[in-house]
Specification:
globular; single chain; mainly alpha
Length: 244
């Protein structure tokens, strides 16, 4: 599949996350479970590492547990249990590699890449925490719009040295405008949200351009969902540090 399809998948999951924030908490948990499963299944395929099914289970279950914990953790520590799931996932990755035995192909790449997958899968719980934090969806909407602009910019078939600064600047401009129109979020805080979202999402575009070979459907879905889902924690902490 074409690499631009990753951006389309990212836009789709972003729309689901923003729409889910305007519904009940159970819906957001469902979105989190589906997103974590998508990251778990697709990330090992994107990395093209062995033991895909086992690592998919580890990555997916870690993210699902984080999403559920973020939905039911008592305030104000909505993400207090997420580090425990990250640690459990990383330990499970190492256990999988030990079971595989020494001398196996791509053992180091599989270990490091799968640990990164666990982190991405678990950090998405920040979207749920952000909705629960102040009971409104303003921050999620602003972050979602800036992320959408970054993803749309990433679809351009231009060199990374042009797309990256253009996307970061566009996301940094759209976020304050969205903050003024749809919420009471201050311009500086919204600008920080946009720049951070744009920087993180466009950095993953570089990973796609550097990967050799064509991508299968699982790899496209995993890579499209992973960065969009993971920036949820950035949305939450920026909201908590700069706005609340």
């Amino acid at each position: 599949m074409k690499s631009w399809s990753i951006g389309v998948v990212g836009l789709a999951i972003l729309a689901v996350i923003v729409a889910g924030s305007y519904t009940t908490g159970a819906v957001m948990v469902g979105v989190g479970i589906v997103a974590a499963a998508a990251v778990g299944i697709g990330w090992p395929h994107f990395l093209a590492v062995p033991a895909k099914k086992t690592l998919a289970a580890v990555i997916g279950l870690s993210g699902m547990g984080s999403a559920i914990a973020a939905a039911f953790a008592p305030a104000p520590g909505f993400l207090d249990y997420v580090p425990a799931f990250i640690a459990a996932g990383v330990i499970a990755v190492f256990i999988v590699q030990l079971v595989r035995g020494t001398g196996q192909a791509q053992r180091l790449e599989s270990t490091l890449g799968s640990c990164a997958g666990v982190l991405l899968s678990c950090l998405g719980a920040g979207w749920i925490a952000s909705v629960r934090f102040n009971g409104v969806q303003e921050m999620v909407l602003v972050a979602g719009l800036s992320a959408a602009v970054a993803l749309l910019t990433g679809l351009l078939r231009w060199p990374d040295r042009i797309v990256a600064p253009l996307g970061i600047a566009a996301a940094g401009l759209v976020a304050p405008l969205a903050g003024l129109v749809f919420s009471n979020i201050s311009v500086p805080a919204a600008a920080v949200v946009g720049v951070v979202m744009g920087s993180v999402l466009l950095s993953f575009r570089r990973m796609v351009t550097l990967r050799p070979g064509r991508l299968n459907l699982a790899a496209v879905v995993g890579m499209g969902v992973a960065p969009v889902w993971a920036v949820g924690s950035l949305c939450y902490f920026i909201d908590k540090l700069l706005i609340y």
